[in-house]
Amino acid sequence: MLQQRLSPLQARIDAALDRFLPGAGTAPERLHAAMRYAVLAPGKRIRPVLTYATGEALGVDLALLDAPAAAVELIHAYSLIHDALPAMDDDDLRRGRPTCHREFDEATAILAGDALQALAFGVLLDASTAPLGADTRLEMVRTLADASGSAGMAGGQALDLAAVGHKLTLEELENVHKHKTGALIRASVRLGFLAGGAHDDALGERLERYATCIGLAFQVQDDILDVEGETAVIGKPQGSDAGLDKPTYPDLLGMAGAKETARALCDEAVTCLAPLGDAAGTLALIAEYIVKRDR
What we know:
The chain has helices at residues 2-20, 29-39, 46-57, 66-83, 100-103, 106-125, 134-148, 153-163, 170-180, 182-195, 201-228, 231-234, 240-243, 249-272, 281-292; strands at residues 93-94, 97-98. With 295 residues, it is mainly alpha-helical. The protein has one domain: Farnesyl Diphosphate Synthase (Orthogonal Bundle). It has a two-stranded antiparallel ribbon with strand order 1-2. β1 and β2 (97-98) form a beta hairpin. It is globular, with a radius of gyration of 18 Å. The mean pLDDT is 92.
């Protein structure tokens, strides 16, 4: 059921990303090839699908959602490139294949990440790619900037690096992941909400809580898979968090407690969608998928 709903949206975002990215044969060729390698790698596309699904639930034409959906995935791809660098997590595998700096080189990978971040904002600001009102596009830029910077994803990565080798409380660990993983997931949902006009503040708050819950659940499940998953399935080295001595939910709560937490977060997320009724069916299925996925 979920895959039937996701497949058309995943195909749509892949086509949009291919359209917005510079061609591989365009100079500088190596940089553009690295950008395309990182972005078009097989992936779940959860963040852009959340943008589409939120907009769909509010009656927004999918064509209006292509640019914001692509922008959030471009930011995500840039973050994966930089997170995998030797100065960060020093990963050799991401999304089931060599990381960008292994496939190309470290300097090219850094530049590819930088360029993808810039491209994300360019896509949102270009009226030809984002046929929305100027005020809406500006608010989308603000949303994505806040989610990407020191108050969001980048700040979360800094907190994550600082936590290596330390014991954190549950509250401290949640704070790390509300920034590192959750900020971009919340932005993905908000971009769809903004495309729908963002008129209902109460609904906006419920969607914000939905996104907060699934963002935390996503990280809890990632931590579970780092212990129980297989490298060939999850697409990155199993046990990499333990190898880096990172604090995780299973460490703090035990495996059973971590699984209970993920389920509780999923249930709360689905409850938040009640005012949207059947229109939020895809969003509810995504919440379920996040805690049941094996990769």
